[in-house]
Amino acid sequence: MKALVVTDLSFPTGSAMASRIKSFCMLFKDLGYDVHIIAAKTDNDHKTDIIYREKNYSFEIVKSNRSEQIQSFVGNENLLSKVEEYLSNNIVEFAFFNSLGALFNDVLELCKKHKVKTILEQCEWYDVSNFRFKDLDPRYIRFNKNIKNNFSKVDGIISISRLLNDYYLSLGAKSIRIPSIFDVENSIYNTGLNNKNVKLIYTGSVGKSKEFLKPVLEAMLGYENITLDIYGLTKDKLLSNLDNDEGLLHKLGDRVIIHKWVSTNELYEAISNSNYQIFIKPERRSSNAQFPTKLTESMSFGTPVICNNTGDIGLYIKDKENGFICDANNVSQTFDAISKLTNEEYNKLRVNARNTALKYFDYRNYIQDVRKLIEEL
C-alpha cells in the first residue's frame, strides 16, 4: 500500500511542517504504508531528480525556476507535474498534504482524477498581519477562500487544535484532532541539569508578529543568571521583532547568543541541554489555531517550556508541574519562580515534561485514530 505526501514547504528540514511530516510518515509506516514525499523546496543541498530513501519514507525535492517570493503567490510550477507523474505510475491509497498555498485546488483535482483519497493536514489559520499587503494580499484572500469553501472538500482532515477541529466538524467535514507529534520514545532525554545558571533557548521563526521576544529580553535585565540562545533568527530579524531596540540587546550583551544555522540533530542537542524553551504568542485566533512543534519537541527531550496559554497549550502544560504558563505582560514573575527552584525540584520538572510528552505527543498514541480515519474515507 502506498501513501503520497505533498508539501510546498521545506523538507527534510527548514520548517516545523517538516518535523510533523516525518512523524506522520512514521505513523503511516507503522500502519503498513510505503510512504513517498514530494516537496517543493529544501533548505540544504538535496538535489532534484533524485529519490532519497530513509528508514520510514522516500522523498524528492522539486525545485522551481521561480524565486521564493514569486512562488508564495503562484506556487512551484514543477510540483503539479511531479504529483501527476507519481499518481499515474503508482497505485496510491491516499494523499496527505498541507494547505499548499496556490496549488491546493490543483493537487486536490489531480487526486480526484486518479481516484485517490485525500487527507488535509491543517495546522494554521493565518492572521492578516502575516501578509505583506494585509487584507489586500492575494495570498491572504486565497487562504480565506480555501478555509471557508475548499479545504473541507477533502475526504478527511487532521486538525492540530480544538479550534480547527471544531470548525471543520461544523462544516460537516470528517476531522480528527492530533496535536503536534514526535517520536518521543526514541528521542534524546537529558537529566541532571543544574538550575543555578538558567539557560533559555528560543527556536524557530518569530515572523512579523507570530511570537514576541521583547518581553523575554526585558525581563532578563533583572536576572544576571539567565542567558538566552537563539536559533533560527538573524540579528536583523531579531531586531525587527524587538522594534529595532538595539539598546536592549546592548544591555544584555553576551547573555543573548544568536547562533548560525545548525543541523536538526545539533538543534535537538541544544534544546536537550537547555533548561527551558521559551516563547510568547499574541492572543488571537491564529495562535489558538496552532499547536507549537517546539513545545512537543522540547518536552520530548525533557526540557520544560515557558510560554503563555494560547490554543490547546493549557491541556498539556500544568504550571510549575511540567513547565510554566507565563503571563505575557509579566515574564519576571515566572523568572522569579524558576529562580527559586532547587535542582531536585527542577529535575522533577524535567521528568514530568518528558512523561507528558510520552503520554500525549508520541505519534504511536494516534495510530488507531488515523487507522480509523483512513478506513472511513
3D architecture notes:
- The chain is of the alpha/beta class and 377 residues long.
- The chain folds into 2 domains: 2-181 and 362-376, Rossmann fold; 184-360, Glycogen Phosphorylase B (Rossmann fold, 3-Layer(aba) Sandwich).
- It has helices at 16-30, 68-74, 79-89, 104-113, 138-150, 162-170, 214-220, 235-241, 246-252, 264-272, 285-289, 293-300, 331-339, 343-360, 367-376; strands at 2-10, 34-41, 52-53, 58-61, 92-97, 117-122, 156-159, 175-177, 198-203, 226-231, 256-258, 276-279, 305-307, 324-325.
- The protein has an 8-stranded mixed beta sheet with strand order 3-4-2-1-5-6-7-8, sandwiched between helices.
- Helix 12 packs across helix 14.
- The longest helix is centred in the C-terminal third of the chain and has 18 residues, at 343-360.
- The model has no long low-confidence stretch (mean pLDDT 95).
What tags apply to this protein structure?
377 residues, alpha/beta, Rossmann fold, 2 domains, 8-stranded mixed beta sheet, 6-stranded parallel beta sheet, 15 helices, 14 strands, globular
